[in-house]
Amino acid sequence: MELVVALLSMLAILGVGASARYVGLFTPSRREVVNAIAYYVALPALIFSATTAQPLSDVVSTRLVVGVSVAMLAAIGIAWLVHRRESDMEVRSVATVQSYHSNFGYLGIPVVAIAFGDLATARAGLILGIGSLIQIAATVTVLSTLTGAAASLREEIRNVLLNPVILTLILGLSVSAAGLSVPTTPATVIERIGDTALPLALLVVGATFTVQAGTLRYRTLATVIAVKVLVMPAIALAVFVLVGADAATVRAGVVMFAMPTAVSTYVFAVELGGNRHVASLNVVATTVVSIASLLLVIELLTALT
Predict the structure, then answer these.
(1) Where is the protein localized (predicted)?
(2) pTM, to two decimals
(3) CATH fold for the domain made of 2-304
């Protein structure tokens, strides 16, 4: 019941963000402020709190690294094959990218934290680090190849490595490796700040929702939704089970791969020649559908693991 309430609350917060934008309360400047708080403060706090609460040996594993890499590459390959017959390169590039590029950071880690606790959240942080590098490299390559736009892969990967969430992950793992402990009061404050990551992220996502009349491509939209929220978690489950990952890794991995399309894919589409209207709609649709599908995924994981 708690999980159902949490997922319904996610939908409500998305609606609040979208409504606030519609009536003019959530202006672009205000959205940027909330986005900055979520991205540079709340989400890093959540990562730091989760990683420092676990011994390093409990967080890092070869099976996790192999599982994420194999599952991510398999998802990219399937997305490419599924959309290969789309004749419009602007649409094909966006549909391909948005079928695998997951919202690992803003939504994935907070949802894992709510559903499965600190150990799974720490594992989710590692999945974010590994998966982001693969996703960014693939997304820039796919978009620039299909649209012919110029892009700097080196610059994008550099941005990932300097991402505040990734830097916080490294810091948290370093503290854990050194056997240090965070004093109770600061640890509690950091944990409470981390608790705000999901609602703030959902407000921002809701405020970015735009759907323009005449841009609906039902077949493409249905395919992106199916691959993103159904096929990807199925791939992750199969891969992590096959590599012999433990329950926390399986849970974190499958939930992270079940996340909707990342909002950043819209930015990539705009910058690299993809169809921005299709990109916006895919973000909206996968986010809304994933709220329902996540309930099924989490219930299944709880029963299986």
Answers:
(1) Cell membrane
(2) 0.80
(3) Na+/H+ antiporter like fold (1.20.1530)
